[in-house]
Design brief:
Blueprint (H helix, E strand, L loop, with lengths): L2 H22 L31 E17 L4 E11 L7 E6 L3 E4 L4 E10 L8 E10 L7 E11 L13 E15 L3
Antiparallel strand pairs: 1-2, 1-8, 2-3, 3-4, 4-5, 5-6, 6-7, 7-8
């Protein structure tokens, strides 16, 4: 290549890499970058029992959008699992992970946490309950390996259908949204 072509080619490569970097940057946002240092105000909802125990501090929060799945057993709808995408912001622009059966929360980097229900509260009769969950296991890298408690709050939708299923085994996907607050021990 002639010197002028080499300079032009080099400039094009740099521009392409810069564009790729800008394009890929939002996808690489992690749970750690989705930090908001304010825990939810549970007193306004009369859900004080959902406070994370002393010795835990808020690490981050995520915004979930998805569905609660239910299966018709012939007499009632039985909860199967949640299926949701987790976002770093309330406008659902930056995906940071997923939420599924277990219940399990998994970050884009592969780290995950499984938890069990400790307490629940239903401030909105048209939505699934708010919950306090305690970690039962963690796996993989990243901030999820330090999670001790999770709160599910500000839920919308997700309740089991009121009408019977069309047939035994029928599955209903009921849309829901929620905020998940993730806590860790204060000494981390």
């Amino acid at each position: 290549m002639k010197p002028s072509h080499t300079k032009l080619f080099s400039s094009l490569i740099r521009a392409a890499l810069l564009c790729m970097g800008l394009w890929l940057a939002p996808a690489s946002v992690s749970f750690a970058q989705a930090v908001n240092n304010q825990a939810p105000d549970l007193s306004a909802s009369l859900c004080d029992s959902l406070e994370a125990p002393q010795g835990n501090k808020l690490a981050f929060r995520a915004y979930a959008v998805g569905a609660q799945l239910y299966r018709w057993n012939g007499t009632s709808w039985v909860f199967v699992e949640p299926v949701a995408t987790l976002y770093a912001d309330p406008n659902h622009h930056v995906k940071v992970g997923v939420h599924y059966a277990g219940p399990t929360w998994e970050a884009n980097n592969g780290g995950k946490v499984v938890a069990t229900r400790v307490e629940g509260c239903s401030p909105d009769p048209t939505a699934i309950p708010w919950l306090l969950l305690k970690t039962t296991s963690t796996d993989g890298p990243g901030i999820l390996s330090l999670v001790t408690y999770i709160q599910r709050v500000n839920t919308k939708g997700g309740l089991a259908p009121t009408a019977p299923g069309a047939s035994i085994g029928a599955v209903a996907e009921v849309p829901y949204s929620a905020e998940y607050y993730f806590y860790r021990a204060k000494n981390y």
